Amino acid sequence: MKLTDEEIRHIARLARLGISDADVEKFREQLSNILENMDILQQADTTGLEPTSQSVALENIYREDETAPSLAADEVLANAPGQEDNSFKVNAVLE
Amino acid sequence: MNDPHRLTIHEAHALLKDKKISSAELTRAVLKHLESIDKKVRACMRITAETALESARAADKAIAEGKAHPLTGVPVIIKDNMCTKGVTTTCGSKMLENFVPPYDAHVVEKLKAVNAVMVGKANMDEFAMGSSTENSAFFTTHNPWNLDCVPGGSSGGSAASVAADETIYALGSDTGGSIRQPAGFCGVVGLKPTYGRVSRFGLVAFASSLDQIGPITKDVTDCAIVLNAIAGHDKRDSTTVPLKVPDYTKALKSGIKGLRVGVPSEYLVEGMQAEVRQAIEAAIRQLEKLGAKVDRSVSLPNTKYGLAAYYILAPSEASANLARYDGVKYGYSYRETTNMWEALEKTRQFGFGAEVKRRIMLGTYALSAGYYDAYYLKAQKVRTLIKRDFEQAFQSCDILVTPTSPTVAFKIGEKADDPVQMYLSDVCTLPINITGVPGISIPAGFVDGLPVGLQLIGKHFSEETLLQVAYAYEQSTPWHTIKPAIA
């Protein structure tokens, strides 16, 4: 599987990763090489098999819907890159 | 007491309990050794000397009151992807360079509750993605057996710190081999418990269906002691099982007469270092000598798909888990723009290192429209095949024996530019995460002065059996008593 520059930029955009021109080239080569090594999967006969998403199957886990103390606002905001009036501060979403 | 930093947990506990040494004395001795030798090994992301001495004093008080748990007052180093309240937790990433967690991980709470003494946080590959610590955003850890070599990864700092006697034990995390491979490379004991045995609450998430926390220790007895302390149900990690936690130290000495040991042929071929193979063969003969029944007809035929399935599944889960790093709530944030999307994309461009970006992109691709069925869904079905292999093998065997890695530790820089070669060093360990069973790496000899790891694999929740076999082997061999010259 050979990826194109355009595909690399598309994937980066889906992942919201900024990417430099030099990285487009590097990732194109490396990811193409990695994906070629993944081609072996197509040889596996998985007809009729269910996918496994988790290895130690538990039933659904429920808990009581009880209130409990959470972290204080100043603790939650202590690591915030930007804050104002007890809130996270972000750039305008709408121009 | 000479060189208290060389003690194991059980040795230190005996001395602490009998008041032959205080935790303050032990902690000071460990810190002194750690601060001098870590200039060469560089296992620690940070050394927490001040809080360690406070904890040691609290431990001494607890011991004086007759409350001496086996871990009370004993120094530990914790991998830097486990949250420690008030102590910076970087996860090896610039993204979290200044992140100070507001709470402790479940395992850290458990250790604090018995007055353990944290002396440092361990270096690691960024977001636990790597097999050498070369992906750490800050520096590379060196193998105490040969400083030109990698310690393995991603828990390379944890394993190197234990091998160099910089701590009495450490905690690591394992998503595809990240405890066992570095334990093997550094000649120490490393256990990845069964998926669901230990809570991941407060562990920075990498691949949630594979991640597990476990001990890295100087011997098997210590491994059992640490597992006793950290295992168990936690309602904050709903994948933990509500099974009773046995006393893992109890079964250690039961011997292995008649135990059925399987040697899957698929793990002893292709690209394996000949001398590693010889060491593993010698270990198998030793198990036979101890009374185990060795079965070489066991086959795990889908092993050849393990690496590919893993490198679809783990990056896919990672790409979802790492979506949270957006520069808003915590972590690195690009602020030189007023455009929201540009801020988000540049935060992730400059905050993440190359391997993390590679895996996010790989995972994003495998999950994207048009490729989901061919990659992600296919890998999940192959996961079913691999799981069945193990179920089949465990019908006729109690445990399986393989090398931990196909080679001993490689040179720093040797594989740094070749992701696929780097991924291959986990080829023997990652199927164990895919199936969720427990695996342990124990020292099994040396090749060119570098340790060889022997991997034992058990059924789900069979840690007692694994530790029992590991103990029998360890006690009949000299490997765990041999220390690197530097320590």
Describe this structure in words.
The complex is a heterodimer of chains A (95) and B (487). Chain A has 3 helices and 2 strands, in the order H-H-H-E-E. Chain A has 95 residues and is mainly alpha-helical. Chain A has a domain of 38 residues. Chain B has 15 helices and 11 strands. In chain B, strand 10 and strand 11 form a beta hairpin. Chain B is globular, with a radius of gyration of 21 Å. The interface between A and B is large, with 51 and 75 residues.
Would you list the SSEs of chain B in sequence order as H and E? HHEHEHEHEHEEHEHEHHHHEHHEEH
Question: Helix proportion of residues of chain A, in percent?
Answer: 25-40%
Contiguous helical run count of chain A: 3
Widest sheet of chain A: strand order? 1-2
Average residue pLDDT of chain A: 92
Greatest interface and its residue counts?
Answer: A-B, 51 and 75 residues
What radius of gyration of chain B results from the CA coordinates? Answer: 21 Å
Label this structure with key terms.
heterodimer; A: 95 residues; mainly alpha; two-stranded antiparallel sheet; 3 helices; 2 strands; 35% helix; 4% strand; B: 487 residues; alpha/beta; eleven-stranded mixed β-sheet; globular
In short:
The complex is a heterodimer of chains A (95) and B (487). Chain A has helices at 5-14, 21-38, 73-77, and strands at 83-84, 87-88.
Compile the SSE list and pairings.
The complex is a heterodimer of chains A (95) and B (487).
Chain A: H1 5-14, H2 21-38, H3 73-77, E1 83-84, E2 87-88
Antiparallel strand pairs in A: 1-2
Chain B: H1 9-17, H2 23-41, E1 44-47, H3 49-64, E2 75-79, H4 106-113, E3 117-122, H5 156-163, E4 169-174, H6 180-186, E5 189-192, E6 212-217, H7 220-230, E7 260-262, H8 274-289, E8 293-295, H9 306-321, H10 340-351, H11 354-367, H12 372-396, E9 399-403, H13 419-424, H14 430-435, E10 439-447, E11 450-458, H15 463-475
